[in-house]
Predict the 3D structure of the following.
Amino acid sequence: MSPEAAAALRKPRRRHLAQRLAQGLLRAMDQAQASESLAAGDGWLQGLDPRSKLIGALALIVSVVLTHSLAVVVGLFALALLLAWRSQLLAAGVCQRLWLSVLLFSGTIALPALVLVPGRALWQLPLPGWAVSEQGLRSAALLIARAETSSTLALLLIVSTPWTHVLKAMRCLGAPLVLVAILGMTHRYLFVLAQTAAQLFEARRSRIVAPMNGAQQRALATSAAGVVLSKAFWLSNEVHLAMISRGYRGEVRLLDDFHAHARDWLALLGALSVPLLILWGER
Amino acid sequence: MSDCVFELSHVSYAYPQQPALDDLSLRIQRGERIALLGANGSGKSTLLRLLDALYFPGQGELKAFGELLSEAALADDEVNFAFRRRVGLVFQNPDVQLFNPTVFDEVAFGPLQLGWSSDEILRRVDAILARFAIGHLKHRAAHRLSGGEKKRVALASVLVIDPEVLLLDEPTAALDPESQGEVVRFLIESRHTGRTIVTATHDLDIVEDIADFVYVLADGKVVGAGAPAEILADQALLRQTHLAHAHWHVAADGSAHAHVHAHRHQHARPIDGDSPEK
């Protein structure tokens, strides 16, 4: 064995980019499967009619966007927490993962507001000497709270409702057929393509004998993405033929077997009253 | 009513880069069980797609149920509806065919497109799921099914409309032996239904079970036709079309030679009411 190869073997091994990508794709598929089992649970939200849930979630998200009061947003976040708890979604850990990602993303966007928004100075940052204003702090807090609350409400809808029911509810509420059909098939074929990509990365990894540098790893990932895209193109043509073969003529038809009960109407009424109350209160 | 389901006269079809079918002529009668035998790339799948009016001949004429099958004819909703109601194609790759989020949606897709009533759809879907013993998978997502389960769902999704003609593209490909056995059993049982079945395959082991007549394809042409026993006995034809089934025998000195043959089973007694094989 050459000294270089021996040194490469002695070095602490970082996980290969292909390996990380393959594992990431497989983990995403596992999480999607886990969320399907959550939707089949017997929690409070799972028992509601998907149409009520869809309209209710939209009404509450609109409320979060409409209000300028941090206290109201925090109140709506508390409501989302209560719904998640009553629907056994808090223990599953899906909310916690979302909160961290949204905090990092919206926090990065909100950070400059601390020093850019003029107002009463609260304290001075030591190195550049910029002042953090009270108004800036409130703006940043409102932005983060809105992002966290809206995404939590959207997540509650998705994890408490089978994706097919979300699509059917969208169609029942007048969403365009093409949009619903595209969303349905995208969800289905994401798994096929993710599986293909994961297998492709594993196959590549099994044939890599020498350590690869960063550029080589990136080239490998890019070429794999190209292969997956070309497979996606082939698959889309084949799927279209399979649909035509079974009578598809451009119009997607769905069975509407939803049944709204009294508690669905109550939940809907409650959710719709929130934005109206906010509009009335903040006149 | 004409007994001829499909009639192809001098049909040719080419993909942008390569020809697929070349001057092909054949007839398929009502109730026949046909095997399209050929190696990979021989044109079997293309022919099935022509029979299902997904592709149309570049040259020649294709008639279905006595009527000319063309893109212009299928543009008419009524003609299209009638044709799709009578002909069903099971694709080789079930991932292509299972495009709906759940098994129930998948099986209900065809009937929904054909405009059946909700009650009728629910009744038919439940019946076909029970027929294939996949009722427990009803609300399962397609990507969570095994290969054998996907194939059964694909079959159910086509058979739910009870088509007169069933086209199958490599139905046993990439299946484990048990799942292969289930598909073959279904095809054997189908001979009593009077349904016309056209199966594209290169699996010589199943040909005698699933077909009464065989067309052998090579390079987009029909190079042989006859009863399964005749075709399987024609070693020269099987070798020429790369279909010869070979076992390798290793001699004591380590050299290997191919032992080419077809599997044939002869029963001394009638089985399930059949007449004994000659």
Summary: Chain B has one domain: 4-260.
